[in-house]
Amino acid sequence: MFKPADLFDLTQTEHAALFDGCEFAWDALKRLKDYVDAHAQPLLKNQCDGVAYIGEKVFIGEGTVVEDGAMIKGPAIIGRHCQIRHNAYIREHVLVGDGCVVGNSCELKHAILFNDCQVPHFNYVGDSVLGFKAHLGAGVKISNAKIVPGNVTVEIDGQRYDTGLRKFGALLGDFAEVGCNAVLNPGSILGRHALVYPCANWRGVLAADRIAKNKAAVEVVARKT
Length: 225
What we know:
Blueprint: H1 4-7, H2 27-39, E1 43-44, E2 47-49, E3 53-54, E4 58-60, E5 65-67, E6 71-72, E7 76-78, E8 83-84, E9 89-90, E10 94-96, E11 101-104, E12 107-113, E13 118-121, E14 124-130, E15 135-136, E16 141-142, E17 153-156, E18 159-162, E19 170-172, E20 177-178, E21 183-184, E22 188-190, E23 195-196, E24 201-202, E25 205-206, E26 211-212
Parallel strand pairs: 1-4, 2-5, 3-6, 4-7, 5-8, 6-9, 7-10, 8-11, 9-12, 10-12, 11-13, 12-14, 14-16, 14-19, 15-20, 16-21, 19-22, 20-23, 21-24, 22-25, 23-26
Antiparallel strand pairs: 17-18
């Protein structure tokens, strides 16, 4: 389930060429910098509501609204009919598809968002790929670097595989969802339609159509006056 086509509908991005010949979907992250540097041509077709900072090497498609206080540092390519909301921070080497939401106080860095992806509230997405109609709940963080030295690894058939990436956050397949305030640890992979419960601390691979539940105990006691 680690090939690009296993996770993503490649017709739902204008940047499918980035995945050509990739044995594993995360290999596209190794090409992302060069791809964005080569293809990000300065052209702004968007509407600004208020005052935003937009860097010199940024492309934004028609129908996209950039709200007051947003900072798009770039290089970046942002598609059509997106919402880049108040105080969003889009850093270097980011691809945002059509119809996406990048919300208040969200930060994107070295990331790929397929069409209709939603990163709407207080999210961090670094060194990651989010598939078609993937959705992050408020406060979801995608951790992209191990605390200890070394490359991020992924477990395949019970064995650790070195991805060759010192920084690698997550791959979210099409329609995957992550609940509010959950954390995805480095090298997390969610299959299509997978769901991670709110406040979960997830690490590893979650197959398609599976749910990762976090059943924390809740204690009810009498209220003292």
